[in-house]
Protein 1
Amino acid sequence: MSSTDPRGLQTFPAELESRSAWLEPFDWYREMRANAPVRYDPTRRTWDVFRYEDVKRVLDDDGTFSVDPRRADDYVEPERAEETLIFETMLFTDPPSHGDLRGVVDDAFEPRALGDLEPRIRDLAGDLLERADALGGPDDELDVVDAFAYPLPVIVIAELLGIPPSDRDRFKTWSDTLVEATSADDGDETAEYHERQQQAQMEMATYFLEALEDRRESPRDDLLTQIATGELEDGSRLSQEEALGTCILLLIAGNITTTNLITNAIRCFVDDVDGDGDVLEELRDDERALRTALEEALRYRSPVQAMGRVATEDVTVGGEVIESGDRVIAWLGSANRDERQFDDADTFVPDRTPNQHLGFGHGTHYCLGAPLARLEANVAFEELLARTSSIDLVDVDLEPTRSSFVYGVESLPIRYER
Ligand code: HEM
């Protein structure tokens, strides 16, 4: 990705550019934590921070480390205005305005509000699995991503927003396109990728603008109405750009991340025991064990591996001086494997407690959707386990998710017994 990437993230470091390296970046993280825990990469003009304590500090100190990519010295304004819409959202806004933007939607994501949603998520998960089972080949094989882990969060957020079922496929396509990354060296492919991104951004913007206008005129009981009509502290409403950006953020932030939580967790639960299903067995009918094991999956194969910041003043981290205006990447995925913080950090321990992982970030920008993601993943596994007596991974070459910060696989074929 170029320095104008709307999410403020950069290309992969060269060390992670190959498919196999991005599938298993953990040895490289370990090496960096030991030998260069805070390092400057001149190619990307970016600092990389790898140790737990340092990553947590970068996330917590929102005065020194801004989320606004426009504060970077080498920030280049994108050519098209739509690309900066996302900057108008909480994810890229520092306090004090951050609280205002988050406050418009945060009550919808509180566990109490989500409780009402649980039966609906259960129905959706059950339907998807029944449908996949009906379509299943002779060997009861299915691609968990395609059949289950991908559609579930898209449908849930679409329903929360108030999007009619007939528009869901378009949602999936937009959401996909917007998290996709590409290598800066890809030449033609990069141009194509930018064009696809712009097209998706435009289509989505048009769609949401109409939907927001509709909710202003005829409010309903949905999140789009909350975004269109919600009041800020001073009694004003979100600007058009802020409202639109928030819709797009909710769509992007919650989909492929939750997909990969479910998929990565299957890999953790099944991989770990050479396919004999022991971990899965322990989770069957044990709500607490399942919840604990999902937290460990968030640590062990974190769906979000990296988050970007910009230093607002000169600051020393791990003995290195980061200058004001420099870009910083906090490697959550490495922090979550830091042997200084976790015993047996490179081992998947399903009943690990305590588990202070940074999979949902930390501090001011701690994931708004964490309770929803946890609920979806829990329900997904309860429904999956209720319908299967064993699950094995099919032996195929895995393809990593095409993103420089979301970590997972494009597809995950499993073989199951009912
Ligand atoms: C923020 C991860 C699911 C909405 C974040 C951050 C992380 C994260 C690491 C912090 C970003 C930063 O510090 O810059 C995840 C993971 C998920 C997930 C791993 C799934 C397993 C969701 C869902 C939603 C959501 C389901 C909503 C539908 C958000 C929003 C923010 C955020 C709005 C910005 C919060 C703020 O800036 O105050 N997420 N997320 N996420 N996430 Fe999630």
Protein 2
Amino acid sequence: MKAVVYEGPYEVTVKDVEDPTIQDPTDVIVRITTTAICGSDLHMYEGRTAAEPGITFGHENMGIVEEVGPGVATVKKGDRVVLPFNVACGFCKNCRAGKSAFCLTVNPPGAGGAYGYVGMGPYSGGQAEYLRVPFADYNCVPLPEGMEHESDFALLADIFPTGYHGVELSGMRPGDTVAVYGAGPVGQMAAYSALLRGASRVFVVDHIGHRLDIAKDIGAEPINFDDGDPAEQITDALGGEGTDRGVDAVGYQATAKGGEEQPAIVLNQLVDTVRHTGGIGVIGLYLPSDPGAPNEHAAKGELLYRIGRFFEKGQTMGTGQADAKRYAHQLRDMITEGRATPSFVVSQNLPLSQAPDAYDRFDKREKGYSKVLLHPGM
Ligand code: NAD
Ligand code: ZN
């Protein structure tokens, strides 16, 4: 089959690789109809992780079930399914608690599994014609037949539930004010989720104008950090008060005004942005180690976080990979019923063969490249 293969920093190619096969009775093989490129793929693409050349990326996948293992009970050949990015068993202690991103079975001692992601188990990615899905009864989320809402449903594999999770981690309640740092696809989904959940005001911070425009279009208030301290801009807009909630959808690759990489800047600005006793959700990625970091502490994953100020303000913080499966069924039903249309963030629908060019442009955050969907059958 054709697959996107990582060749080394800043280089992917599309070439023939072996078809996946059923390895365990609980596996299915899915023919991919839509797979997305994620900001999380770029950490590997840029060579900032231990990802080895030869692997196939792709943790945001949907398609049609092609082959079913003898131990699968509920999924049938021909079913249309979306695959939340956490590969998980469904029966370990963490999965039972809804923490499918920390499955103890697929990747002990709990780092969680994912398709096509370094350090997250042996599972190949779905930027390919076919994908093996383990523990299929748990990992396949069934979708209505046909092709309707294809781009909306594709976002259930990661960024829609991940954005929703960021807001959930912050403890958001209806009527709250929310600040989202990062207007990438994940930040857009966090802002959209806050609005869906009844936020009174949502601020979105970035410095890429065309990304801030998308946030404005959905009803959020854009804040450009090149115009001055974003925490000050937001608290000024609120008459001196902080927001009730804040979400970090940037992660360790945050830059300061001027473009210098400053990994902890968003975490510290959130402490200033959010009011006393408010809540913060961190979904932007922080690596346990980062060889490309700007200093030796950051390279070991140690960041200068103003814990004293955080403590003084009595804030709370939730972190981690998102338990995408936990929200996927409800968010699917909201899409089906026309109450959510997350595909406003999708900028391109391309054949798989155009992946190398799409990676390059998305990595450069080129105008018009907010979220790329790839279609192996196109
Ligand atoms: P992206 O790189 O496209 O978006 C990040 C945005 O942050 C960019 O628009 C950038 O301009 C902006 N930014 C940089 N510095 C900033 C600052 N100081 N203040 C405000 N904005 C700033 O990536 P994405 O696809 O939107 O993903 C965002 C993060 O979420 C990545 O770290 C990704 O790995 C992570 N992620 C986490 C999960 C999870 O399960 N927790 C899932 C998916 C993605
Ligand atoms: Zn992703």
